[in-house]
Fold:
Amino acid sequence: MSAAAPSVVPANSSAPRDTARIYSIAELAREFGITARTIRFYEDEGLIKPRRQGLTRLYSAGDHTRLGWILRGKRLGFSLAEIKELLDLYHVDRTGNQQLRELLRRSRLHIAELERRMRDLDAHIAEFREVETQVAAELEARGVDPESDD
Amino acid sequence: MSAAAPSVVPANSSAPRDTARIYSIAELAREFGITARTIRFYEDEGLIKPRRQGLTRLYSAGDHTRLGWILRGKRLGFSLAEIKELLDLYHVDRTGNQQLRELLRRSRLHIAELERRMRDLDAHIAEFREVETQVAAELEARGVDPESDD
DNA sequence: CGCCAACTTGACGTTTACGTAAACGTAAAC
DNA sequence: GTTTACGTTTACGTAAACGTCAAGTTGGCG
Structure:
């Protein structure tokens, strides 16, 4: 491995902000714990569009953020198709009133969906906290140290 | 269709409580908005085990609850395998100290996972609320009624 | 009795989200 | 110069979660 910190960022003062950072596909893969294949697949599906230098893909800070967003969406149980829709929501043309109203409508719909999930999640958490409490109490009553490993 | 409002709860006091209710597979499917095929699939995967009367499946109130739980898990983005694991957590043997400690450990792990999802969800909701606010403000500034359809 | 509606068990098809392998280019390292 | 590391495309494979027939059974109804 030999460190190989690929800081492509020049030590210059004017530019090398975090926002100017460029990532290779392997870097992104490592950082997010996915494979390069996955990232290319997301590109095939139209979720990311990295710059190209010849054939090689170059990912900007924006792509980095976008990928993080995608993976968060996945953790929340959205399909890639849904995530693409949501991403596109951001980048929709916002000049026309009709467009804006549609964006508002979609946003509200999505928020409602998220709030439904929030309620599901609350219920789920409450149940497992209940289990935790009960079991901890039972162990306590038995005089057992809940943390010990034997 | 003929209405068929499923308030089967008799006004009787003694026996046929809601907990004694028995459901057919089609009833469950209708109520939860899934197909009978799905329910049978869950059974194949070991997520539900309805009684049988001959070949026909009979679902108890417990099965009903269980199915609701499964679907909530799905909405939260858990796989059927994960959901099965979680369901089994409840029904684990709770006699031994070692078993109890394991249950406690697993519960805590799962709660941590749920809390991570909660943070994801919070972040997601915050972003979309932001969009909503911005867009609503923009429409307001333009003197457009956000609700009108033209 | 015939018939329909609702149930059953296979078995194969489909979509999603990637994994895996082949075959190749490029560029630094030994 | 060739190995090593990383990149590329193309293409087929696969696991999960069902959908979609096909073919048979069962219970009630006119």
